[in-house]
Amino acid sequence: MTTEAIDLAGFTGWVPFTALPTAAVPTGPGVYVVVRPSDDPPTFLDVSPAGHFKGKDPTVPIAELQALWVPDTRIVYIGKANLGSAGRRGLRKRLDEFRRSGAGEPVGHSGGRRIWQLADHADLLVGWRVTDDTDAARIESEMIAQFRAHHGQRPFANMRN
């Protein structure tokens, strides 16, 4: 998988969200990337199928999605997963929350919510790389900064960094 300025060496997985429950997603901390395996211009859904966490509609106006779209890249989101205070979180749990949110469950994963309005969101692939818990946030921020330096903006679905 090639991706311009972001080095995805060491990332594994590359499965669609629907395959995550049976994929060998590590339980430890790390970073993950969501890619769209197409270079075609995107089509957006009028209404997001994602869950309404705390009653909040995750739908974003199509004009805003179009303005946020980053051409000439397949990377649509960069995220991280820490272990959390109880040490029971990590990549498997975080990605499962992300998947469940996109499947319509009211799960607290607002980061990346824009991907669910891509008409081809079922084709998106997720790859991950295990890191030390203390390094996950730094590596995520560095990857987003590299992306921004190359493209002039954050990945399409990233809302911070």
Number of E-type strands = 4
* Run of helices and strands: EEHEHEH
| SS summary, helix count | 3
Give the overall average pLDDT. Answer: 91
Q: Report the C-alpha radius of gyration, rounded.
A: 15 Å
Strand order of the largest sheet: 1-4-2-3
> What is the number of independent domains?
1
User: What would you call the shape?
Assistant: globular
**Which strand-content bin applies to the residues?**
5-15%
Brief description of this entry?
It is built from 3 helices and 4 strands, in the order E-E-H-E-H-E-H. It has 161 residues and is α+β, with helices and mostly antiparallel strands.
Can you tell me about this structure?
There is one protein chain. This protein is of the alpha+beta class and 161 residues long. It has one domain. The protein is 24% helix and 15% strand. The two termini are 24 Å apart. The protein has helices at residues 62-68, 91-102, 133-151, and strands at 12-16, 30-35, 75-81, 125-130. It is built from three helices and four strands; from the N terminus they run E-E-H-E-H-E-H. The mean pLDDT is 91.
